Amino acid sequence: MAFLPVTQGFLPLVESPRLRMLTVFLFYVAQGIPLGFFYVAIPAYMAKSGASPAQIAAVVGMTSLPWSLKLVNGFIIDRYAYLPMGRRRMWIVGAQSMIVLGCLLGLGLQPGGQDVFVLSCLAFAISLATTFQDVAIDSLAVDIMTEEEQATAGGVMFGAQALGMAGAGAICGFLIQTYGIAAGFAACAIGLAVVLAYGLALRERPGEKLTPWSEGAAHPRNVEIQIDAWLPLLKSSFRAILLPMSLFFVPFLLIRAIPIGGTEAYYPVLTRELTGWTMTDYTGVNAAAKLGSAVFALTIGGWMVAKLGGQRALAILLPMMAALMLVLGLGKPLWSDGGFMALAIWSKEFIGIAIATATIPIAMRLCSPAVAATQFTIYMALANFGRPIGAWLSGATTGGPAPEIFFFLVAAIFSGGAAAIWLVKPATVSAKVQPEAPRGIGTAPAEN
Hints:
By secondary structure, this protein is mainly α. It has a single domain, classed as MFS general substrate transporter like domains (Growth Hormone, Chain: A, Up-down Bundle), CATH 1.20.1250. The protein contains 17 helices and no strands. The longest helix is centred in the middle third of the chain and has 33 residues, at 147-179.
């Protein structure tokens, strides 16, 4: 089909820096909506309904699981593309549509707070669609953004997703408590549908189709670089991952989200039974903390990591998280104090997002140029695996007479990480340069 200079709709993304940044911002906010719903509002709803920590952990774990497996998404998205709509846009629009449909399904089913099976299925399905949207929008950013824009976009991604989580956690928590679970699902569907409508009006490059049935054609650049061979890429990617310094870094990625997954599963029960908070109290404090940490990531956090360097920042932040967990374990008598618990939630959010921000430059430095994008995707998938690990640890330890064991275990894990990171000089964290991928094969896009 001939290349057509179609002009309807917004400017093509390649022609508008502001539109590129707005697109990343909006779709990352959209990612945060289901995360805030299933990580904050639903656990609080389940706790209010009498669900056990293990039942809540099951739903949180199913929410997290697709994020731990998303490196597969990158290969699928690279291999199968409808180029007349752009390399990534079909996946962005399609995944966003599935998220909306998942929320509408939840609206129809209206599961109870102890209906663990239905909630787990909805959490997994909606999260799976969200991970496809995440990988696709990250791939789009790599395809069309300049290096300077990508550096700025990193902070936007963390902050926008946290804003979406904070908003969804607070708004949906209030709606569920006031009007029921259907109101929460409806609010999510409406917010996500607005972003979907925006995505339907975009083009990546001039002349592409807005929809499969509209006028347009594949851009010559996309036709030229479309990837169709996987075996050499897979071999190079895993060879790079198995380098000694890469293997040393992997445990730090795995532990990164353990405190987040564990507290998401246990805090709704702890604050209801011991602190005396209502569901709205908990979701409100959590949402405010996430909002504050989002602003922190967009401003001071990114600047701090840039000044210190990723490894030096981790050498400071890992002991801080270990100390926070130790204080929480020793401070069990203070769990009934609302001020103490609010401070604990805020501290965990700020330290957690700073640790996440600090791991990004290390992961980038370890990536081999020939397979940097695929290797980075694997690192980020490993980082997400900490959330279900934390949820499992919480479910296994907090249901008995000594729930503080969970905090002591996490403190020990982060203390070990802090000791290990001090043993390696920052200059040693780098990867050997791998040969360039054969011409015509290329590498997958960077995802985070």
